[in-house]
Amino acid sequence: METNQMSLEFDAKSENEAFARITVAAFISQLDPTLEELADIKTAVSEAVTNSIIHGYDNGPGRIKMECKLEDRDVFVTIEDKGKGIEDIEKAREPLFTTKPELERSGMGFVFMEIFMDGLEVLSNPGEGCIIRMRKHIGSMA
Amino acid sequence: MDNTTYSLRDRVLFVKLTKELDHHNAIGIRYTADELLNQKQCDSVVFDFANTVFMDSSGIGVIMGRYRKVREIGGFIGVTGVGESINRILEISGMYKLVKKIDMGEMENGN
């Protein structure tokens, strides 16, 4: 199996939302994805990183770890924070559910991650941060 | 960087959105649009996506938030210049139930 892996760590600042998604897009470009596949992955990464910044760290200081691994034509992305964690993961994944309506969160973050990726795993406990694992196969379209 | 521009015409606020509408850029757009709405300079908002290539759920939050505001004052929310990737995001999130697609050509001809 052909594999390639990269990881990086950055500050939980909203400026880095674009940095994170563009970095992943650049890394997976070696698989020659379609524009749609690229847009899907960028959106999913943006949602996960934004969640860490807004919810994990409450817009305060913190670090986010991001890992991207290619296995043949499968892309695996992991986004990890050491923030406050998620109280009720099932509830958090429901469409339109948000704990921060005052910040105009649409409650669509996890929905987009689910729709745009082929697999989504959320690992979190209150007070113990959050790990998002996502998978997408590149080239599934005819 | 947020390159969003704003213009007012016939009580409609036209927001020509920046290239990438994420949480980082959403903060300033929400603030500026609400300033103009609160000053009662407009009662409807049209979001122009002609320059926009990326939007995530934060953009949906911006649209939904303005929708709640203009609904109270009898206004509407429009979208225009919507490309393929933005259209997918708007469709998936059910935004077309709340906002209408606007043809800027028709708007300029006064129809």
Label this structure with key terms.
heterodimer; A: alpha+beta; Heat Shock Protein 90; 5-stranded antiparallel β-sheet; globular; B: alpha/beta; 5-stranded mixed β-sheet; two-stranded parallel ribbon; 4 helices
Overview of this protein structure:
The complex is a heterodimer of chains A (142) and B (111). Chain A has 4 helices and 5 strands; from the N terminus they run βααββααββ. Chain A has 142 residues and is an alpha+beta fold. Chain A has a single domain, classed as Histidine kinase-like ATPase, C-terminal domain (Heat Shock Protein 90). A 5-stranded antiparallel beta sheet of chain A has the order 1-2-3-5-4, covered by helices on one side. Chain B is of the alpha/beta class. A 5-stranded mixed beta sheet of chain B has the order 1-2-4-6-7. A two-stranded parallel sheet of chain B has the order 3-5. In chain B, strand 6, helix 3 and strand 7 form a beta-alpha-beta unit. Classes of the chains: A alpha+beta (142), B alpha/beta (111).
How would you summarize what this structure contains?
Chain A is α+β, with helices and mostly antiparallel strands. Chain A has helices at residues 15-28, 35-56, 89-92, 109-116; strands at 3-11, 63-71, 74-81, 119-124, 130-137.
Terminal Cα separation of chain B, in Å?
Answer: 35 Å
Q: What characteristic shape of chain A results from the CA principal axes?
A: globular
Give the overall shape of chain B, derived from the CA principal axes.
globular
Query: What's the Cα radius of gyration of chain B?
Result: 13 Å
Quaternary structure annotation: heterodimer
| Unreliable stretches covering 5 or more consecutive residues of chain A | none
